[in-house]
Amino acid sequence: MTSPIVNQIGAVFISVSDIERSKIWYCSLLGLPLDGEVLFGHLYVVPMKGPGIVLDSKIFTSESVLNVPAFHLLTEDIDAAYDFVKASGAEILTDIEHDHWFNFKDPDGNVLMICRI
């Protein structure tokens, strides 16, 4: 039987407590302009290459916070990315592991990962 479901991720949802603060934080982290609008008072679609990230304040609860990375962001320079995230004030959870990746938290405590390409 052929599945009608495409084997492609459209977007990953991240629950956030304050949509405006999170929009600014994620856009700053990714070097994106702040010109996108918050939809319906609780959604912000981060303009990404590939699968999207949707920030959603309507689904936020302490149980919805990501305790492990659900995806990873990419970098060509893992050391520069680590220094950039650290300078942003984000809570760093790991050192750079195997010269390849590290974990940190967004302002709501969601665990994110950055990996070297």
Name the shape in a single word.
Answer: globular
The overall strand count is 7
**Main pleated-sheet profile:** 4 strands, mixed
Secondary-structure element order, N to C: EHEEEHEEE
Helix segment count?
2
What portion of residues belong to β-strands?
Answer: 25-35%
Distance between the termini: 36 Å
What's the rounded overall pLDDT mean? 97
Strand order of the largest sheet: 4-7-6-5
**Structural class given helices, strands, pairing?**
alpha/beta
Helix proportion of residues, in percent?
10-25%
Tell me the Rg in angstroms. 15 Å
Low-confidence stretches: none
Structural write-up:
The protein is α/β, with parallel strands linked by helices. The longest helix has 12 residues, at 19-30. The model has no long low-confidence stretch (mean pLDDT 97). The protein is globular. The strands form two sheets. It has a four-stranded mixed sheet with strand order 4-7-6-5, covered by helices on one side. The chain has a three-stranded mixed sheet with strand order 1-3-2, with helices on one face. 19% of the residues lie in helices and 26% in strands. It starts with 10 loop residues before the first strand and ends with a strand. 17% of the residues are buried. The chain has two helices and seven strands. The chain has helices at residues 19-30, 78-87; strands at 11-15, 43-46, 52-56, 72-75, 91-92, 101-105, 111-116.
